[in-house]
Structure formats: structure tokens, C-alpha cells
Design goal:
Elements (H helix, E strand, L loop, with lengths): L2 E5 L1 H14 L4 E2 L10 H10 L4 E4 L2 H7 L6 E4 L16 E5 L2 H5 L5 E6 L13 H7 L4 E8 L10 H14 L6 E5 L3 H10 L4 E6 L1 H5 L5 E13 L4 E2 L4 E2 L4 E7 L17 H14 L5 E6 L2 E5 L7 E7 L10 E4 L10 E4 L1
Parallel strand pairs: 1-18, 2-9, 3-4, 4-5, 5-6, 6-7, 7-8, 8-9
Antiparallel strand pairs: 1-10, 10-13, 10-17, 11-12, 13-16, 14-15, 14-17, 15-16
């Protein structure tokens, strides 16, 4: 009995190929928990796509991935002086976001990140004169710019990239390769036409692996079902059941990521109102689970346990049976499955 990730493999791979066709030279991103699929699986899929370069999050991920992927590995987290040294092969490329960082990687292969409107990290325009001298001591693989997902001020992502291309060119820095993130395919075409001497490579993770929502599905096995009556006490905290129904024990708990949720950026009155309503219900120990039974998302009876969750199914719904599976709407990047099944 398990929390299972089912993958419609043919459909999933068809989506991958479609994205690769839209973004020539695409660099697959495999970081965190491997977007819910795991590092090893996505390394295999990247090789299947013919990728020569794989982007990972940290040096620790690169150290693991080197055994699964034979091509080059781009570490996205920028180098910092004093960081713990992690042995990596020469095919590992470090990201750098400061002139000092470049100076600390003499002889290494590097990609230099420039500061975008994300304002997360990157070299600033005023640093470019010093950067021209620093890159003589490294093997420069290119520059990179990480762009925001939303542009609420109406500005253009393409214009932001063009602005940096002009700054780098005016500083007489080599522009053979520019790595970009969060651009549309038509944006990439426009940039490639305007700067034919530069190779633009899109680093893509979410859109590549999770862009087709119908290609994957989580399901949790029903482990136990107990009929309860209004007023019965149950669980760790011995709360009372509010009405007649069933306590359903289903595979998937906090160790799987069930009940754990990333904060959301809410825009508009309706999403904010729903957020307030959810928060109010939570104060009354009413939390909606990700599990679906008989066409409805069911409530947690109490907070998820480590490896299982207990749901309350009201008496007017069909009784779940042990061994049946409940669809679970889970976020891939925070979920750890027990098994993956290709179908």
C-alpha cells in the first residue's frame, strides 16, 4: 500500500519533445527533489532528449548527478568564498554572481549571472569594467540572466535581455553564449535574430517536466476504513466526530510532503478571500486534504501523520474500500512518492 506517482509515459515524453522543439539548445533543469520524479529519472530523460548540459541546484546535487549524467553539469547556485568544497569533475560549471567570485575560481569553467529585475543575485552594470580583467583567469562558458515569471509593471522580458546584451557588448565582454530563464519561445527567436553571433540557451525545468498536468497523477492507497458515529472520539488528540461517517486511513503523510504547502502569491480579491476563508477554517481544525473521493476533495480528520493521513468521509458518501486508491492533488516539488509507475 503506497503513495504512487502514475506517469503516462508516452504523453509525458511527447510534451518534453514539444518543448525541446520550441527551445533549440534547451538546458534541462533538475534540482530540488527532481520536480517530483527524482534526480536519477530526470537524468535518464535528459539523456534521452540528447541534452549535452544539465542544470542542477547545488554542488551537492552536482556531486550526486555526476554518476547519472555523463554530460556537463551547470550548478545554478552561485559560488561564494568560504563555501564547503565539494569534489566535482571538470565537466562541472559553476555559476558566479560577483567579480570576487570570478577571482576565486581561477582555472574553473564558469557562467556569470547578471543582476536582473528579480534582484536575487548577479553582477551589477558598474562591475563590468572590473569583470573584463577577472575573466582572463577562468574558462568563461557564457553569461546568464534569470528573469521574473510575472511582469506586473508592463515591462518587456526581451527588452531587459537586450539591455544587458548591449551593456556586455559595450564592456567588450565575450557574448558567445547567453543562458536565459522564463522566456517565451517567440522571445528567444527574436533575440536570436537580433544577436546572431550569440547562442541563446533556455534553462527550463517546470515547463519541461510539469507542463502537461494530465500526464501524471498521484494516488494514495486506502489502508483502513472505520465507521464512526457523531460524538465518537478518535485520533491522537481524541477529538469528537462532528457527524456520522467514515475515518479513512490513506497512504501519504508528512514524510511524503502531504499537508506541507509552499506559500502562494495571491493576486486579486477572490484568491485573497479564499485564502482568508481557508485560514479561518484552519483555526477550527478544518483543513482540506489533497485527496479526492466520490468526486470531492475530502477533509483531514486530523493533521497528517508521518506516513499516513486520516480523512473524514461523511456517511452520505460511498464507503471507501481497503486497497482502493484516492487521487491526490499534490505539488510535485514538495512530494516524495513511495513508488513510480509508468503506464
Amino acid at each position: 500500500m503506497a503513495l504512487t506517482l502514475y506517469v503516462d509515459t508516452a504523453r509525458w515524453r511527447a510534451h518534453q519533445h514539444n518543448v525541446v522543439q520550441q527551445f533549440p539548445g534547451l538546458v534541462p533543469v533538475v534540482k530540488g527533489n527532481g520536480y517530483g520524479f527524482g534526480h536519477e529519472r530526470l537524468a535518464e530523460e535528459s539523456a534521452r532528449l540528447g541534452a549535452d548540459l544539465l542544470a542542477v541546484g547545488t554542488t551537492y546535487e552536482a556531486a550526486r548527478m555526476k554518476d547519472y549524467f555523463s554530460g556537463d553539469l551547470l550548478v545554478l547556485t552561485p559560488f561564494r568564498h568560504g563555501e564547503e568544497p565539494v569534489p566535482l569533475p571538470d565537466r562541472a560549471i559553476r555559476s558566479v554572481s560577483t567579480v570576487e567570485g570570478v577571482s576565486g575560481l581561477v582555472g574553473a569553467r564558469v557562467v556569470i549571472e547578471v543582476m536582473s529585475s528579480m534582484k536575487r543575485h548577479g553582477v551589477h552594470p558598474e562591475d563590468l569594467p572590473k569583470l573584463a580583467a577577472a575573466i582572463e583567469d577562468v574558462r568563461l562558458e557564457g553569461f546568464a540572466i534569470h528573469l521574473p515569471l510575472d511582469r506586473t509593471d508592463g515591462t518587456s522580458a526581451v527588452d531587459e535581455v537586450i539591455g544587458w546584451m548591449d551593456r556586455l557588448r559595450n564592456a567588450r565582454l565575450p557574448l558567445h553564449t547567453m543562458f536565459v530563464s522564463h522566456l517565451k519561445s517567440e522571445d528567444l527567436v527574436r533575440l536570436q535574430q537580433q544577436f546572431p553571433q550569440t547562442r541563446f540557451r533556455a534553462r527550463i525545468g517546470t515547463r519541461l517536466w510539469l507542463g502537461d498536468h494530465e500526464a501524471t497523477e498521484y494516488r494514495g492507497s486506502v489502508l483502513d476504513v472505520t465507521r464512526v458515529s457523531k460524538g465518537d472520539r478518535f485520533g491522537y488528540r481524541q477529538q469528537k466526530v462532528a457527524s456520522d461517517g467514515y475515518l479513512v486511513v490513506v497512504a501519504g503523510g508528512t514524510s511524503h510532503g502531504v499537508g506541507l504547502e509552499s506559500p502562494k502569491a495571491l493576486q486579486g480579491m477572490m484568491p485573497r478571500a479564499k485564502g482568508v476563508a481557508r485560514a479561518g477554517l484552519a483555526t477550527m481544525n478544518r483543513n482540506l486534504s489533497p485527496y479526492v473521493w466520490a468526486g470531492k476533495q475530502r477533509w483531514f480528520a486530523e493533521p497528517p501523520h508521518m506516513q499516513v493521513s486520516i480523512l473524514f468521509v461523511p456517511g452520505d458518501a460511498p464507503e471507501p474500500r481497503i486497497g482502493e486508491e484516492l487521487v491526490a492533488h499534490l505539488r510535485h516539488t514538495t512530494t516524495q512518492f513511495d513508488r513510480m509507475v509508468d503506464r
